[in-house]
Design goal:
Blueprint lengths: L5 E3 L5 E3 L8 H7 L8 H14 L4 H14 L5 H4 L4 H8 L8 H21 L2 H6 L14 H6 L4 H12 L7 H10 L12 H11 L4
Antiparallel strand pairs: 1-2
Helix pairs in contact: 2-3, 2-6, 2-10, 9-10
Length: 209
């Protein structure tokens, strides 16, 4: 890695340096991180996993993702919304996920809030994408200095406040900025990363819900 925050592979292709931090990262970095998402169930999953990550390394969550999906029935939020105390205890006994009672309770609470939001507005995706930052809010250059200095953004603060007002939990501004990066609402692949122009092309053609 150089001071740009990039690393180069044997073929001379440059990538965000975190791509090489764990064996699971290359696929996630190249094919998921920053790709625009409009599917409500996948968006609920991303919100849950970002919430479970709070205070932990993302690689821990990524390695447990399949176990999370099994434990939460594919993150079908209408099913999770029906969970009761017996389900909380079942999840607390599951070694494949993060066994944190507050975070498990938050996932169930947020499933109920997701149901309310979809019933009211028709789509979780439509509601979330309304918080996409305007072009003038985005930096001219996404470099390592920007990454280091900006764990949140004005848009993530607005999104966090709006979700909290609706009763969602574990949706702080930093967590919501990570969600915005993951769901493609912003493209934070570094300048020079080979994935950045591909993600920009996907964002240009993506039909906002």
């Amino acid at each position: 890695m150089d001071q740009s925050g990039l690393t180069t592979d044997a073929a001379g292709h440059a990538y965000c340096s975190w791509r090489n931090a764990a064996p699971e990262y290359p696929h996630y970095h190249d094919h998921e991180w920053g790709v625009p998402v409009a599917d409500d169930v996948l968006l609920y999953e991303k919100i849950c996993l970002e919430g479970f990550q709070a205070g932990m390394a993302w690689i821990t969550i990524l390695r447990k993702r399949e176990s999370f999906r099994q434990a939460f029935e594919g993150f079908d939020f209408r099913r999770v919304a029906q969970y009761g105390e017996a389900d909380v205890e079942r999840l607390m006994r599951n070694p494949g996920i993060v066994r944190n009672r507050a975070k498990i309770g938050s996932a169930i609470n947020n499933a109920r809030r997701a149901c309310e939001l979809v019933d009211e507005t028709g789509s979780l995706a439509h509601w979330l994408w309304a918080f996409e930052p305007a072009e003038q809010e985005r930096p001219a250059v996404v470099d390592i200095a920007y990454w280091t200095a900006n764990p949140t953004s004005p848009a993530s603060v607005r999104l966090s406040k709006a979700l909290k007002k609706r009763g969602w939990t574990f949706v702080g501004p930093t967590t919501m900025y990570a969600l915005m990066q993951a769901m493609g609402m912003v493209n934070d692949h570094l300048e020079g990363c080979v994935c950045r122009p591909r993600i920009e092309a996907l964002r240009r053609t993506f039909k906002r819900p």
